[in-house]
Amino acid sequence: MSKSIKIYIAILVFIFALILLAGHDGPKNIDWSPTYSVNDKIPFGLYVFDKEINGLLKKQKIERVSALTPYEFLDSKYVPDTIVGTYKIKGTFFNITEFASIDDQSMKELFYFVSHGNSAFLSMKSFPKPLLDSLKIELDSGFEHNDSTAVFMANKKLNSKKYYFKEPLEDFFSKIDTSNTTVLGYHENYKNKKRIDFIKVPYVNGYFYLHMQPAAFSNFHLLKDDHYQYAESVLSYVPKGDVFWYTKGQNSESISGSPLRYILSQPPLKWALYLSLIGILIFILFNAKRKQRIVPILKPLPNLTVDFTKTIGNLYYQEGDHDTIIDKKIIYFLEKIRNEYMIDTSKLDDDFIKKLHHKSGKEEADIRDLVSLINEHRKSYHGSLEEDLIRINNAIEKVLH
After folding, report:
1. Tens digit of each residue's pLDDT, the chain (401 residues)
2. Hey, where are the domains in the chain?
3. pTM above 0.70?
């Protein structure tokens, strides 16, 4: 290893060490993304909720659904009947997310599931349009710059306390079917303007529970002061029984599978990687010099066999020995058939023609014409003419190429 290369390596190691030291004690930026992922420990993840759900929903069986769509899961539990179908399961479909992620087909299946005496608890900032239309609900977003927003339950006997969220909570139900919809919760801005954000809507034999503040179940609010009490109050409306928690898309499925994902997720390591690659590139550009002498170009040896064959062929042709040339052509043709298609060429009959047709894919009529010419030549006692040579040559070329 030359001295210059050692210097380059030492410089790269020094820069790499400086970057690691500079970023080691630096403050980490907090990710406020509302992922609502059960694996995320960031403020708006559901890691704490995932660990505490059995305590929040006491004596209720929790089944996580992460590999299937709602349609695939519920349809697999459906038992058709001649009169009316039923489900092998009974309970509450449960989903917490930022925005509606339920497809239309799954929404139809969810309606059917609820109509059979089950329920659905959905906590999200927006809901699928088919759901809103069917339940005669409209949403609105009255954006206001609030320092804090109070959330509270409609039933004061259940919980009369107001909980203040620092982030603005502008989404609310602006229109509901008051004849059969029960208001369960509100939020209130700094002007004491009360808005509906939690409702219970009957549908055939079941109920939809629609909640618009999914942040209440996030790591941030479950660990902040007494905000967990608000989450407990909301969850108290979840009917007793089995809970089918739909977590597909909330298990960090989108995490990159790259082996460099951790390095690229850490700014100091990422820049160290980039600088290393740049340094290697510079090293290659300035040091990739040719270290060996130029290899002379050697001309390939001429194929004397081909030249010899051409010479012999021309000799036969000039002598007018067409019979010999035709014989050589036939020998060459039959040898190639034996080697490539493993067909017996001792008898050129219908069986031979059919086998060659199937194995080579050539037209049967062309093969039959060639076989006829070969047999005719072999039975001929007079010398062949130049026209015979041309006919057999063209027939062989047509079959072989």
Report:
1. 566 667 767 777 777 677 666 655 556 678 888 889 999 999 999 999 999 999 999 999 999 998 788 999 999 999 887 577 789 999 999 999 988 878 999 999 999 999 999 999 999 999 999 999 999 999 988 655 566 789 999 999 999 999 998 877 778 999 999 899 999 999 987 667 889 999 999 999 999 999 999 999 999 999 999 999 999 999 999 999 999 999 987 654 444 445 666 677 677 888 888 888 887 877 776 666 555 567 778 887 776 555 655 666 666 666 667 788 888 888 888 888 888 889 888 888 899 989 888 988 888 898 899 888 888 888 876 666 778 778 888 888 888 87
2. 3-28+258-287, 47-246, 304-400
3. no
CB-based burial label for 226 (10 Å; 0-12, 13-18, 19+):
exposed
Per the document, the length of the chain is 401
Q: Going by C-beta distance under 8 Å and a sequence separation of 6 or more, which residues neighbour residue 182?
A: 199, 200, 201
CATH of domain 47-246: 3.40.50
DSSP 309: H
Task: Tell me which residue has tokens 């900032």.
Answer: 125
Q: What is the DSSP string of 123-184?
A: E-SS--HHHHHHTT-EEEE-----S-EEEEES-TTT----EEESS---EEEEE--TTTPEEE
